[in-house]
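User: ok so my PI wants both of these folded by tonight, can you help

Assistant: No problem, let's get them done. Here's the first:
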Amino acid sequence: MMSQDTKICNHCGFEGDISLFRKKENLCKSCHNKKRREYYSKNKEKENQKCKEYYINNKEKIQEVQKQWRKKNPGLWNARSARYRNAKLRATPKWANHAIIKDMYAKAASKGQHVDHIVPLKNGLVCGLHCEDNLQLLDPAENLSKGNSFNV
């Protein structure tokens, strides 16, 4: 006998807690996600067009939500931005530990510091890597005065 806090999935027969099911369906979340992926793969153009139209109709609202997220998560935003910039430069090696790098950016944001590349990514003498061993935390004034220089 089922308790009131459980449901049974109509698709796979899984019985579990209500939190593992969609609110208005008797489908567990994993079955729902599987069906959703199948639908998307068959209707990519239609779905992409729907997303585009939603963005056009709600552009200001979406941008405001993104702005609020960036304000609440400056460390994550800085890490994401740095990862993007350094991917364009092809400066991030495959073996770089992204979790440590993300933590450094979060720590820097909370302390009011900058994350600095010890060996610059772009320099006339040398090109460094975007990895945890080439990063350090510096005070903003010190980092900005250092610029893109590299002393041999």
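One down. Here's the second:
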Amino acid sequence: MPYEAKPGSFNLFKNKDKKEDKHPDYKGEGKDLDGNVISVAAWLNDGAAGKYMSCKIERKEDKPVVAAAKKQEFSDFDQEIPF
């Protein structure tokens, strides 16, 4: 049975797919305080006070699904062509 995060918590795992510096060093999933599923990304940085993590949190449903949207647009368009 996979672990299911409780609201207000998340897990981060080392990003094994990192190919560029702009890709996160760690990524994971969890739930915000309302129980919505979130994606979490973290980058390791060096600053004047020492090492720190810069993090980004997004709701999963807020992520743009460009490929699916474009596919839908074209399939609707094809159905309207009269020939």
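The helical segments are 66-80. Strands lie at 9-14, 26-31, 37-47, 50-59. Good luck tonight!
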